[in-house]
């Protein structure tokens, strides 16, 4: 795509109701390595609201799932009221579709990021409607854990590929340094409770892979971008 610099890395995070005390550990690393990041928020968070908007973008992570056949559209409006600056959205469980496009646009969304293409290269933002673009993502920590891949940099999309590299992490997996799914399942019983800290993995896991990625970004002088920066690009 014309104008979009190659080697650009997008670090995105679905917060999934993790409380601020535990979310802080992810923020600390991003501040330490001085990289840009986009958080898709599920809930009120004084921590997210306190972040420097030049380094951190806040998007919405509405949970449209509801018992029965109806979509919970209020989830979108509640989050927009909490984060009025948001222009992007990624749904919890990636639930999306044509019906939600108009609701999202009416709520001020200019992009959505619900299309997941695991380790796909040469990704580009694409127009979804006249007013909104889709920004796909090509790596997700939960898929990595589900596929039982080793926690090595070679498992990530090639960072020098000419398209976008859009990573999706869940701060709970950075907090727990998740290595196997069962650890997360065990910890989830105590979600956001002090007991959850007992399940933190001291070996190799998602946190160590995340730190290795940050170290590579720094040592290779790769640039990180906010998702909303895709909006400045001209899309054919
Ligand atoms: Zn989610």
Folded structure, characterized:
The protein is an alpha/beta fold. The chain has a single domain (8-232), classed as TIM Barrel (Alpha-Beta Barrel), CATH 3.20.20.370. Helices cover 29% and strands 14% of the residues. Strands 1, 2, 3, 8, 9 and 10 form a six-stranded parallel β-sheet that branches. Helix 1 links the parallel strand 1 (8-14) and strand 2. The longest helix is centred in the last third of the chain and has 14 residues, at 206-219. It starts with 7 loop residues before the first strand and ends in a 12-residue tail after the last strand. Residues 14, 16, 61, 92 line the site of zinc ion (ZN).
Note the main attributes of this structure.
TIM Barrel; four-stranded mixed beta sheet; 10 strands; binds zinc ion
Summarize the structure.
By secondary structure, this protein is α/β, with parallel strands linked by helices. The chain has one domain: Glycoside hydrolase/deacetylase (TIM Barrel, Alpha-Beta Barrel).
Number of helices: 8
Structural class by sheet pairing and helices: alpha/beta
Query: What form results from the Cα inertia axes?
Result: globular
Poorly predicted segments: none
Major beta-sheet overview: 6 strands, parallel
Helix content: 25-40%
What is the N-to-C order of secondary-structure elements (H for helix, E for strand)? EHEHEHEHEEEEHEHHHE
Second-tier CATH architecture: Alpha-Beta Barrel
- The top-level CATH class is Alpha Beta
User: In the residues, how many domains can be counted?
Assistant: 1
Q: Please report the total strand number as a whole number.
A: 10
Query: What percentage of amino acids are in beta strands?
Result: 5-15%
Mean pLDDT: 93
The Cα radius of gyration reads 17 Å
């Amino acid at each position: 795509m014309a104008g979009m610099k190659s080697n650009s890395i997008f670090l995105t995070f679905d917060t999934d109701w993790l409380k601020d005390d535990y979310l802080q550990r992810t923020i600390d690393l991003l501040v330490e390595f001085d990289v840009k990041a986009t958080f898709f928020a599920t809930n009120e968070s004084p921590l997210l609201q306190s972040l420097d908007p030049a380094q951190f973008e806040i998007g919405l992570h509405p949970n449209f799932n509801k018992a029965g056949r109806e979509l919970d559209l209020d989830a979108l409006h509640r989050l927009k009221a909490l984060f009025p600056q948001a222009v992007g959205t990624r749904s919890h469980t990636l639930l999306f579709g044509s019906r939600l496009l108009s609701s999202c646009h009416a709520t001020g969304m200019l992009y959505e990021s619900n299309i997941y293409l695991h380790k796909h290269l040469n990704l580009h933002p694409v127009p979804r409607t006249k007013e909104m673009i889709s920004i796909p993502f090509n790596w997700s920590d939960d898929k990595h854990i589900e596929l039982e891949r080793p926690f090595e940099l070679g498992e990530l999309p090639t960072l020098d590929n000419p398209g976008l590299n859009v990573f999706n992490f869940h701060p709970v997996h950075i907090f727990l340094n998740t290595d196997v799914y069962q650890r997360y399942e065990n910890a989830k019983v105590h979600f956001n409770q002090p007991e959850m800290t007992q399940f933190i993995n001291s070996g190799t896991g998602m946190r160590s892979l995340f730190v290795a990625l940050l170290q590579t970004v720094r040592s290779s002088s790769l640039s990180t971008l906010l998702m909303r920066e895709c909006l400045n690009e001209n899309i054919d």
